[in-house]
């Protein structure tokens, strides 16, 4: 097998394997995931035949990122339905597998509504399962379309904010094809800038503790032939101070009604740095990530994860090896503060780019208008 850490050809696809796909082998329908815990060492598929397997994959981050979680949740409901499990129960479990990304509950809700309405319309179980699957496929397609529209709206905004091209963009966590039915959110904008010849450099935060930046964004950037440089999260301050960052582009896991943005922990410090250094801080997310039922940032439930993710350094497993415990970097029994996300207040966000265009400034009334428009579309 090729060395996964060797330089990558510029025209290599972002991955040989899609982040997620529905399959129907003779043994019965399955949801197949690209196991993101194994990247970049190897592209291994994880086959889910039931909802507990999918919930496990969601909790371990084998499948992750807000839009993809929504798609996985919708297919999970379809999987329960076609395999004859208790659909209502499966939907409940799936919707609560992780608490912060609102897309997960949204995707589950859509597939469940399709299932329920087929049942209420007198359909049999097979027809209702078919309706849930059709809804999951529709969400998958819509997310790919949203992704393409965000990329062009985001590129237009960058050109407006930073005339002259040669953008040096800092990003955090992973927001590319690994989190979406298409090419992603923030990463898709950087990729559009690269393809247009206007990306000078993508600065990639490693994104401690689970290294989504180092393992996944660097992987996607390399495969797309982008000029990128990896940095430790704590090096971002000196990079700003050196005048090396023109814009920050990040995704979101939930956007509250007042415009507060929950995203991977470490996003809020970047917003503060960006404001201090007069650098645009741009959030790129589909409207499915807006949650009008969550009033403000303080009301967003932030997932707290195991101390072990901080007290041990999780080296990605080598090809073929079991994913084991990481290397301890703190004395045994050390407590750790390990929120998976943080919340950036709307006043620190220069613009929110969605598939329906950009919103700037980000305010509660702007968010309400955006939601009303996207409901009509
Ligand atoms: O914990 P993860 O890896 O699921 O977190 C993902 C992020 O925080 C992404 O930045 C976010 O989902 C936006 S991706 C479109």
From TrEMBL:
What is the name of the gene encoding this protein?
A: mtnA
Q: Which family does it belong to?
A: Belongs to the EIF-2B alpha/beta/delta subunits family. MtnA subfamily.
Where do the catalytic residues lie? Answer: 253 (proton donor)
Residues annotated to bind substrate: 64-66, 98, 212, 263-264
NCBIfam families this protein is in? Answer: eIF-2B_rel, PRK05720.1, salvage_mtnA
InterPro entries tied to this protein: IF-2B-related, IF-M1Pi, IF_2B-like_C, Initiation_fac_2B_a/b/d, M1Pi_N, NagB/RpiA_transferase-like
Instruction: Quote the protein name from its UniProt record.
Output: Methylthioribose-1-phosphate isomerase
The organism's lineage? Bacteria, Bacillati, Actinomycetota, Actinomycetes, Kitasatosporales
Q: Decide whether keyword Lipid biosynthesis is in the record.
A: no
């Amino acid at each position: 097998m090729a060395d996964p850490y060797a330089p990558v050809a510029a025209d290599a696809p972002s991955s040989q394997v899609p982040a997620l796909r529905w399959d129907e082998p003779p043994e019965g329908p399955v949801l197949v995931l690209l196991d993101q815990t194994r990247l970049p060492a190897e592209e291994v598929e994880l086959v889910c035949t039931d909802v507990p397997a999918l919930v496990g994959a969601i909790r371990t981050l084998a499948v992750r990122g807000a839009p993809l979680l929504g798609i996985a949740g919708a297919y999970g409901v379809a999987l329960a339905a076609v395999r004859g499990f208790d659909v209502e129960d499966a939907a409940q479990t799936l919707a609560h597998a992780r608490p912060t990304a609102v897309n997960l509950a949204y995707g589950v809700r859509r597939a469940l509504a399709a299932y329920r309405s087929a049942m209420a319309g007198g359909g049999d179980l097979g027809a209702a399962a078919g309706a849930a699957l059709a809804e999951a496929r529709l969400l998958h397609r819509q997310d790919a379309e949203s992704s393409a529209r965000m990329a062009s709206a985001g590129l237009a905004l960058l050109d407006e904010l930073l005339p002259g091209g040669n953008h040096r963009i800092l990003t955090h966590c992973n927001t590319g094809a690994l989190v979406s039915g298409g090419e992603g959110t923030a990463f898709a904008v950087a990729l559009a800038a690269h393809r247009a010849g206007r990306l000078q450099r993508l600065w990639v935060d490693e994104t401690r503790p689970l290294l989504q930046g180092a393992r996944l964004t660097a992987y996607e950037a390399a495969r797309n032939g982008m000029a990128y440089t990896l940095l430790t999260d704590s090096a971002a301050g000196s990079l700003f101070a050196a005048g090396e960052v023109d814009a920050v582009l990040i995704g979101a896991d939930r956007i509250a009604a007042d415009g507060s943005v929950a995203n991977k922990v470490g996003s809020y410090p970047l917003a503060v740095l960006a404001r201090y250094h007069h650098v645009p801080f741009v959030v790129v997310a589909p409207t499915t990530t807006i949650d009008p039922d969550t009033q403000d940032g303080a009301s967003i439930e932030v997932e707290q994860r195991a101390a072990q993710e901080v007290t041990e350094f999780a080296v990605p497993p080598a090809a073929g090896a079991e994913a084991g415990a990481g290397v301890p970097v703190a004395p045994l029994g050390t407590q750790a503060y390990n929120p998976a996300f943080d919340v950036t207040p709307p006043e620190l966000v220069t613009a929110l780019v969605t598939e329906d265009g950009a919103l700037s400034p980000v305010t509660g009334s702007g968010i309400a208008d955006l939601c009303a428009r996207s409901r009509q579309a």
